[in-house]
Amino acid sequence: MTDVEGSPAPRRSQRDKKQVKPYASGSQSPNKRKRNTEEDDQVDVQEMGDAEVEADDEDDADGVDDDDDDEPDTRPAKRKGKATALRKAKSKAKGPPPPKKPRTAKNTVPKLQKTPKPTKRKARANGDFDADKLATETKISADNPLFNAIMNPSAALQSTAEDFLDSLAQSPGAAQAELINCILRACGCNDSVDADEVLDYDGVVDSLDNFTEGLKQENSPIYPLTSKLPIFKRFRASLSELISRLVLSAADVGALYTSDMVTTLQTWVVAMSSSQIRAFRHTATAVALEVETALCQVAAAVEKEAEIVGRQREGERKRRAANKAQNVREKDLDGKAAEVRKRRAALAEYLKEIVDGVFVHRYRDLDPHIRAECVRAMGHWFTHYPAHFLDASYLRYVGWVLSDSATPVRLEAVRALSAVYAQAEYIGGLMNFTARFKPRLLEMAARDTELAVRTAVLGVLGAVDQHGLLEDEEREQMCQLVFDGEVRVRKAVAGFVGGLWNELVEERLAGRKVGEKGKERAGAKALAMLLVRWDHERVEEEDGSQDGSQRGVAMSTDIKGRTALAVEALWDDVDSASGWEGLLEMLLLDHSAGGGEEDLDAADDSIAASAKNTVDEAWRLTETEESVLLEVLIASLRRAKALAGTAKKVEDETLISDLTRALIKGLPRLFIKYQTDANRIANVLLIPPLMNVELYLEMRMMTAYANLWDDITKQFLSHSAQTVLASAVACITHLLSCPSLSNTNSTKILELEDELAAQLRDAVGGREEIEVAGFNEDEVLALGAVCARVCALIGTRDMCGWMEESEGGKQSCVWDIIAALVERGRLGYREEERMIEQGLQVLGLHIMWKTRSLPDAKEATPEDEKYMESLREERDSLLERLVEYAVGTQSNTAEAVKRAAFQNLMTLHILFCAEQTTTPDGRVLPTAALPLELDDEVQYRCAGFIQAAIEQYAELVEEGQAPGQEEASESGESSGEENVPAKGKKGKTKAKSPVLKEQPLTRTRLEQEYMFMGTISTFLRAIRAGAVHVRHSAVLLAHYGRLGPAFDLCTKVIIDSLREEGMYRENGDLVVDVVTQALKESFTLVLDSIVRGEDHVVALAKQLGQSFMIRGAQLSIVKKLDSQYIVQTHTNLLTWINKKARKTAILFFRVLQPLLAAVDSRDALKIKAHMDQVLAQAKIEVPPSSKIWEPQRAYEKKLSSIMAKDKGGAKGRKAKGAKSAAMVTSDESESEPELRPAEEEPPAPKPRPKPRPLRRQRSPTSSLSELEASDPEAGVQEHIEEGNGKPEAEPEVQAEHKQEQGTPMNHPRPQATYGRSPT
């Protein structure tokens, strides 16, 4: 309290204290929470809010409804307890606008207060709290008892509130001044008001203006709500608690209705909430919202009291009907009802005042924290006083901020809606609101940028669906999120999907009497139906060209990963997802057979018997559903095994054993059922790796184990699909990894190898000259299948002995046969493409396996020498074919063969690279005895191959984009985003479209990208290993930013190589060559209009700039390339771009700017001198106001700023030049003047009153730059002839020059004639 009014009455209450009520926050009942409990959860709001709005801490006039000046930058410290404080801030609400004159007649004596009795209250323990220390640390005066109580963690705030109410009853003015001063301290303001000023409602604005001016003088005033100081950690919670206790206690004793406390508080906080100062605005808003929340609790209690009194009066009326006379109790009830109505009216006035004076303006504040405060408070009001606030006039505010640009605001809006739909009794009034904002909620659930928002919205939509307010299409749209890539989204929608699954099961079993097994099978059928239905639309979009019979097959392979994600999410909510035993039994049934009724409970539960049962229509599967259910079974088995690994050891072994026993019985039947379907058998082959095969030995079922080997081998030898072969090889590898079954494994793998060799020899058909022999279509397919099988198996197993086995020369070995088949690659038969490709892979893998067994050259025996010579011969013969097929000029090789040959060529040169002959510890590698070097000519051909592959893939990328994709993105960018600055959409849109509008990649497109990146990564590895020279990396760098993020990752490896070459190997010329060549080729794509915009070239320049230096801590330059090479890079590029005489070439100066990071002042001077020389030689003068030349001026300005670091005068000259350039008008850049005919004489220009002097005499060639300044579409003239000192120009251009001469607004400076009329 201030000392202006003298010492107020004693603060100690003289009456008996009632039992102190424990404090409850705005979101809880007052009887459930004490002040010392844990703070409210500070989930996603604080995590995302502090990071997202860090840049918004500075206030400006846009943040306030009034058009005031910006507040000085007083960026507060980051707040830790922000979410708690914001949540509690909702508990305050105020009434109507304060009257103009103070009402002092009513606040002398509380109406219902009794005479206090002189009693003493126990002193509070202050602990270690020191008010003077607080004032020193925070620079906030400690002269306010209420503020000190908030800061004191040991203070009893209930007692503080009661003491304040006692003081309010005895000295109203001083008490209210103390309350307002507490709010000022909470704003970080040390000014105070006295008892007279606080009640002078007309002078509130003037007083706040004075406080604002004083606060602006401080450099960084402390702002408790957002301060990082530890002492303010619980400030927001304590402030919220004190305000809530004040309002609730005032309502209990009647001071809320008999005093001016609320009116005075409203007057000040409403005015402060519109302040220019963010500290005032934020704190006042928080206080007002906390008051409103507390008033909501009071109003709800009053409403309940009014309801009780009404029922009591109605009862008394019924009793009076018999007595015919009004009794005393009825009169008392009438008086009580009148008093309750009076309190309701006062509370309604208070509530309306804060909503209209604070919330309506601050919910759209510039500061996202304030907006989030308002929305969170509205959510609390919905909870505490739904009868009043669950109305369309209040709900619309929450609906509007669903499109807010700040994540915390959107999150609070969604949480507020969760509270809304949790109150079923008010759902009738939410119909219109739901219909209006339901599309936005669905959009947020599918595409919001923050996971927290998406999961919260899914919870709201689930509540909406419980009230039956979602259409079937909208429910389907939600359920499709079970395939989402984010695990939190899938888990959030799992409960909703579980509800739909239960409904469908009940629907299919309607009118049927079935047991548990029937319900289990109906559940499996329902799950398959739902997965097919939700994924059907995506498959139609991707595979629209396929017919109906192929569509199911495409889905069964494409849905594999998606089904596993869905099963993981639905594991706890859908019983069929976790019931792998029931799924296995379901799949063993013959769903193609007709069925009648059966007693499922009486049927045999064995799997064998279940296959004999006819299938009921309630759970009969279609072909597509059966494929999907097989995927569900595999995902369920994997999930069950993964969960078993986290359980105890005994439980783990038990579950794996049960799983294996069931599969031992069921797996053979699955092989028999699906052996003709390549896609399904590929999925069945995923099951054996999940089994504990040692259980075969423990159960003495070796015959069954041998049969399992036979089943897998049969599928491997009878199918040629890559997925089947890969799955079969994975099964074989799993079986071979069991040492206790090695005898059976050895026998079976030898049988498989013998069968493979026999298949290969049979496919060749005993032909002598395989290289030129003729093969029919069936033989080509058979040979391609055999080569694919050998390639799949040799990729996981050393088969060198088998490859070279010739049975003593009785027959050709596998190496010779496959090598002969590979020789047919030069013929270019497209039918043999797969055969040649797989053959090359087999030969390359054979060389790698053989190299793995290469002996040490120093300890080589004659036998080892023979082994090395054999390896050398095989390698050299293969390399000869690889070079011919990949980069040769004579053979007519197919594309797939070229790609395979190139990859194997690079891989072998990496393996035998002459620069990689030692290990890091200095040991000589065995491959050092067989070094390889790639000829320069072959390297250039390889670079050309990569260039061709890039161009081919770029065409595929461009063809895959929708024609109207960019236009749609421009209009859809701002859908519903009210807080996006308009200036962000100004100007021309860029070529690339936003991420949200990109179409999903199809399976074909993903396969193309996979093959392309396989080729690129192989070439990149060769560069990194030294097999290919670094200079050839420019071909990759030139396409940076054009082919997707996977391709752009290659840049980092190349940058590391360039940095190593330039700074550690003193090879700066190489760095200059690569950087220069890469930027030239990249910008040439822009000049040739192959790529729209220069943004990707600028991004490449930023990456290449890192090769000039090595940064250390805090981005300091630790080491950099020699300055002469950096200068050489700039001069080479400036000379090159000068030859590209067109308007687009000027944009290249934007590319040069990122390369100046490592340039010092002396180098900048050299670069600038060279640039001036280049421009002078081209006879080009840069106009100071043309927008076309803005990149050049920015480049020159950056050079000047670098030079100014060591030259003090340069800075002044630069600033002066910049100012003069800024003063020049550039109307010609905004709108082009209309051209007049050349014959028309332009009017004479009016003389300028004060023309600016020319800085230098313009040469006759300056007409070119003036032309560009006046016409942004005019390009740099390609060729200037120096006849008699004037440029060659067309008559139309000359006419335009004459027009410019007669339009002084276009050129503010008086100048000589710009052009000469043609003569």
UniProtKB/TrEMBL annotation:
Biased composition (Basic and acidic residues): 1276-1300
GO cellular component: chromatin; cohesin complex; nucleus
Xref: InterPro entries: ARM-like, ARM-type_fold, Cohesin_Scc3/SA, HEAT_SCC3-SA, SCD, STAG
Comp. bias regions, Basic residues: 77-93, 1247-1258
GO molecular function: chromatin binding
GO terms (BP aspect): sister chromatid cohesion
Biased composition (Acidic residues): 38-72
PANTHER family given in the database record: LD34181P-RELATED (PTHR11199:SF0), STROMAL ANTIGEN (PTHR11199)
The protein's name: SCD domain-containing protein
Lineage, highest ranks first: Eukaryota, Fungi, Dikarya, Basidiomycota, Agaricomycotina
